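Summary of Year 1 activities. Much of the first year was spent building the evaluation harness for sequence design. The harness presents a backbone, in tokenized form, and records the residue chosen at every position. We chose the following record to illustrate the format because it has been used consistently in internal testing since the harness was completed.
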């Protein structure tokens, strides 16, 4: 049974780059979200065992998504993928429950160790 994955980013190019960075043989069912509100809706619909979340999006930021998930006790493996690499941003997403932070542009070499470390890919 495929793992449900949400890729949330307002940039079509960033969503494509993220998709290409995933392991080729990883059995996943991907849902795309173009803003934070769509990402949260996809999670609530049970489509996000794993979520790749951008921080800077219209309508609802990645920070706001994490805050809502924390407030609602929603449980998902969230990996933030962002160009905002400031230490304060990294600390904030960790405190909001994200399990990892990967700088954009994401590469398979950066993603694979994170997936393996958290038992999401063997």
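For this record, the design step produced the sequence shown next.
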């Amino acid at each position: 049974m495929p793992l449900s994955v949400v890729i949330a980013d307002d940039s079509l190019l960033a969503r494509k780059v993220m998709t290409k960075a995933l392991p080729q043989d990883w059995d996943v069912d991907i849902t795309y979200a173009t803003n934070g509100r769509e990402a949260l809706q996809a999670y609530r619909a049970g489509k996000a065992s794993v979520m790749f979340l951008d921080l800077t999006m219209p309508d609802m930021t990645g920070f706001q998504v994490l805050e809502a998930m924390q407030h609602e006790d929603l449980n998902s493996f969230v990996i933030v993928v962002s160009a905002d690499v400031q230490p304060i941003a990294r600390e904030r997403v960790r405190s909001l429950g994200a399990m990892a932070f990967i700088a954009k542009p994401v590469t398979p070499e950066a993603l694979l160790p994170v997936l393996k470390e958290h038992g999401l890919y063997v």
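The chain has one domain: 3-117. Quantitative recovery figures across the full test set are reported in Table 2.
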